[in-house]
Amino acid sequence: MPRALHHLDLWVDDVATAEGEWGWLLAWCGWQREDGMLSWVHADGTYLFMEHSSDQHGEHDRLRPGINHLAMTVETRDELDRMRAESTERGWHEMYADRYPHAGGEEHVALYVENSEGFEVEVVVGD
Fold this sequence. Notes:
By secondary structure, the chain is α/β, with parallel strands linked by helices. About 20% of the residues lie in helices and about 30% in strands. It contains two helices and eight strands; from the N terminus they run βαββββαβββ.
């Protein structure tokens, strides 16, 4: 079966900060950094490219029309717990901490984090 998503272009305001925040999170979720580029590739072939564009205007606001958040996966609850423990020092703020790991419902095991530019990522255990 072909991959469902070919690639993502992520426009960021501060490339250096975003590279550290996103690079850490993507590595946790199994993405590999491509040499010499601001891009990461997943084992299924999907890739994410990061840049700051002169065409950008205004700040990112996930609550306006557009993509609200990305959801990625890790294989185990142990990985999710370790990711949660490290997330703050890596620039990600935990959302819904009082309901971890079931903020999405009792049958759903996930961590919700937001970075310094307001991008939200939901990290789900398994498929």
